[in-house]
Amino acid sequence: MKSGNTRGFTLAEILIVVAVIGSIAAVVVPLLSFIDSKRLEVAAEEVGNALRFAVGEAGRTGGYVMADAQSNPGHLRIVRSNASGADLGAVSDPLTKRAFDIDVASAAFSAQVAMAPRFLQGGTAYAQLLIGPATQLRAFDGAVDRGPLQAGSGIVLSLDSASVTVSIDEATGRVTLP
Question: What's the CATH number of domain 11-176, 2.60.40.10, 1.20.1250.20, 3.55.40.10, 3.40.50.1100?
Fold first, then answer.
């Protein structure tokens, strides 16, 4: 005799739930990897725009501007400088009117992106770039001038196993994105 008070799920119901969960996972997982690639693209755009701004600011003012990724790891600061690489104060972002400071690691659209500056001189990577009048580009380390920028310089951005390099041409100061 069958009781009318049975509890539980039938095999067919369980299989339907598993199939629905599998379908949702098949759609969501590729979207998550797409979001990661977008984070890297956004970070590259931010860093590229900051470097372009620094080159433009040095040309516009006829003075020196430092792209500094050393004093605050994970940040790219743009500061006024002189020929010896001294920090003479922040350059204001023309949009926000605040100090020009890019934080790619915790920004909303580029969270968890790691930044590794590679301003090359003598095969060694340094974290500061001094940009002077007439597009003088020099690698700096603290207040030490390491010499003219070499080919292959830029900033490497990485997220998990993917990475991109925002390059700066050692002769012209032209910034290129991947």
Answer: 3.55.40.10
